[in-house]
Inverse folding.
């Protein structure tokens, strides 16, 4: 798996050095940013039934985020 950097330290998959420790990374275009995909992505299945094209990196978002338990 490639090294994935993430600066969202309140994510359950965040690791030292801003490393993402999720087994699976789900990235979508912004038009799906608020979609309720009704599943957790790290280590589980996720929506692969559609394909989109992003104009640039600013038009993408990570759906893997899961808030860290306190």
């Amino acid at each position: 798996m490639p090294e994935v950097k993430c600066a969202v330290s309140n994510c359950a998959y965040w690791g030292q050095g801003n490393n993402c420790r999720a087994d699976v990374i789900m990235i979508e275009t912004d038009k799906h940013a608020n979609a309720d995909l009704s599943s957790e992505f790290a280590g589980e299945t996720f929506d692969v039934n559609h394909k989109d094209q992003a104009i640039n990196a600013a038009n993408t978002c990570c759906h893997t985020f899961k808030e860290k338990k306190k």
